[in-house]
Here is the input.
Amino acid sequence: MSGLFSNVFLTALLFGAVTAAIPLLLAGLGEQMSEKAGVLNIGIEGMMISGAYLGFVGAYYSGSFGVGFLTGALGGIAVAALMALLCVRIGLNQIVIGIALTLGLEGLTALLHHFQFSRSYPRLPAVPITEIPLLADIPILGPALFKHHLIVYFSVAMVLVMIWVYRRSQLGLNLQAAGDKPAALDVAGIDVIRTRTIAVLFTGTMAGLGGAFLANVGAGLFIPFITNGAGFLGIVLAMLARGRPVWVLVGALIFGMCLSLTTAAQVAGINVPTDVIQMLPFLAVMVMLVLFGRRASLPAALGIPYERGAR
Amino acid sequence: MFSKWKRSILSVLAASLLAGTAMAADVTSIAIMTPEEGTDFGWNQQGVDAARAAAEAAGIEVIIASGLGYGDIRPALREIAADGASLIIAHASGYATSAPEIAEETGVPVAIVDSPQALKEGLVADYTLSGHEGAYLAGRMAAKMSRSGHVGIVVSGEPPSWNSQSAGFAEGVKAEDSSVEITYAVIGPAAYSDAAGGRRVTESVIAAGADIIFGQGNGSSFGMLQAVETTTAADGEKVLFIDVIGDKSSVAADHLLTSVVWDITPVYSAMIQDLKDDTFGTKRYAITLADDSVQLLKTDLVPDDVWEEIQEIRGQIVAGDITIEPVFEATAVRGLMTDVTAAE
Here is the structure.
């Protein structure tokens, strides 16, 4: 146990917690906008796996992580566009379409992987790191929190951007109205379908980035089913956060920290059933739900397709 | 009159016996269903390859259904049963509940893993295999080659087959050098495809001081490999990886120290024979060092002298001079790790 409480080990745990949290943060922020606008985006898992596959393909063939994140985002947008077409424009059932997209994309990416990578399982090199001057020199915390790829800082910055959008911008008001009283928004002359489409496409972008992060930074490779339910956790975080982006960040970090704590507990040789230890992240989310989610109110028109003039 | 009835009864009995014999011998195809693609250089690939080899040896057809995931496979089981498979091999511990149900429903025999209590004559066989003898050798090798005196075990779940190998590895380490520290970590309850989790946990175990990782995971083992390839040990040198079941040397030659390679072909061949002999579901199957269905992979990273020492130990196991009992229960495995740690 000599290495258990060394700086290197503690740094690795914290670094791992941040790395595990970022895909959930991106997915949660994306889902939050969809839900605000009244679209329950169950297909976010499919958007993530699409982003993971195309993100890896982009990074692998171009040799650039930046290109990988771009193609990952495009992968998420492509699935989101389909979701927007079927659920927002045509008005089909959001849950059914979301599940279908997720299952379809899981199968499609597994098939593509089979033909493309299943004999070689290529892996990416170590991700390039950007240090925040001075802060990166703080023992333990510095290397864990301030030595990451730019996408990590971008993800955290997006929390601030989303706070501004929801509180200060016209778009934020439109999104809120599209989710609560779409008819009123329509009467005010704002296109509800367009507003919801923007929200779904934003979700696709963020989910695609989250998937690309998971594949390129989290794992360094793509394998079938790699997202492992991260999109669904993003939905849970978005619902718990009650429309507040900062709570998505808090929830994602708690989940990531709990994952790292489970590893620490095992490495420390704590002789309790692993199943119990593994429950910790999910238990933490449930506690969050009980403590903070009781007063959660979802948008009145969530999951209901908008049809002008319909009663 | 009596003799006429007697002759009739005897004829019916003879006809039934002949028909029964014909049915028992009528094995025309086997099917294997795997959760991931049969190209993972591990559990899924070894299963698919073995099914192909066993079917070819028996001169029967093989049906491959791979990449089925870890969810409900009842519809796929029904479909394959309807296709006329004589035996369905449900090649994942997660299928051990649904496959026997479909066997009861359709009458098609199934082979499952990690459920030895589920044996049912003529219908359900279990092939919970254990490469614990090979894992023991890997443990001996790891203890000989660890620079830091600290090795790690990372697993993506705790099915019985992997538990026995984790225990075998720990026992091997302990037998070689009881001062070597062992760190044991599970990625998740069933995190077989969690490559990101595999990488994260492995990096933490390396940060705790391990310089050799014994990894057990399907897709997640590639995340473990990524961790050993992109992280250095505490002494700044490379971390080595010990794999199980398959041979990943073509995709990870620089860091793959060895692998506990399984050949499941004899097991599937025995199942086909048991179906023919009408003894299916009455016994368990095993893989061993003695018949080479378990082997330790020789790579360039293993020095010749170490390899020779390991081969001597292998000879002692085959001769019965060293006995390694399989440990299938997760609690017992964790207890063993605690003991090993306490022994330092």
